[in-house]
Design goal:
The chain starts with a strand and ends with a helix. The protein has a five-stranded antiparallel sheet, with helices on one face. It has a three-stranded antiparallel sheet with strand order 2-7-8. The protein is elongated. Strand 5 and strand 6 form a beta hairpin. By secondary structure, it is an alpha+beta fold.
């Protein structure tokens, strides 16, 4: 399916006493990847929320293989697993400057109608953009 990549550095405030990226920050890294994946597709997460759709995480699985360290330049690859329905699933690979695989993850989110707080189908505009790729 469709993938994109972003790069960023581990900031000092994101590290623990060992100068490793604190494990709790990885979910935010993956969120950055997801938002940029949508943006590259031509979909704004902000506009999705403005039209009444939110995307809460319903499953998060992270496999830490090697630590990311302070000031490392990281590359995050975000890949759509399959065409979304009421859920959308992404896989992630996080690598350092030496192309070493540091972390993998799988995250599932649900499309939720903000008025009813109930699951809903993926928006047609998102599905249409996916068909064009």
């Amino acid at each position: 399916m469709i993938s994109n990549k972003i790069q960023f550095r581990v900031r000092y405030g994101e590290t623990d006493q060992m100068s490793y990226a604190y494990h709790g920050n990885y979910a935010q890294y993956f969120e950055m990847g997801r938002i940029e994946w949508l943006r590259e597709l031509g979909v704004s997460y902000k506009k999705m929320e403005e039209t009444g759709i939110m995307l809460p995480v319903i499953n998060l699985n992270i496999n830490y293989k090697k630590p990311a360290k302070y000031d490392d330049l990281l590359t995050l690859k975000t890949t759509l697993v399959k065409t979304p329905t009421v859920k959308i699933e992404f896989e992630y690979e996080l690598r350092n400057e030496n192309d070493e695989l540091l972390t993998t993850a799988n995250i599932t989110l649900a499309f939720v109608n903000m008025k009813t707080n109930k699951p809903t189908k993926a928006p047609e505009y998102l599905l249409n953009k996916l068909k064009k790729t």
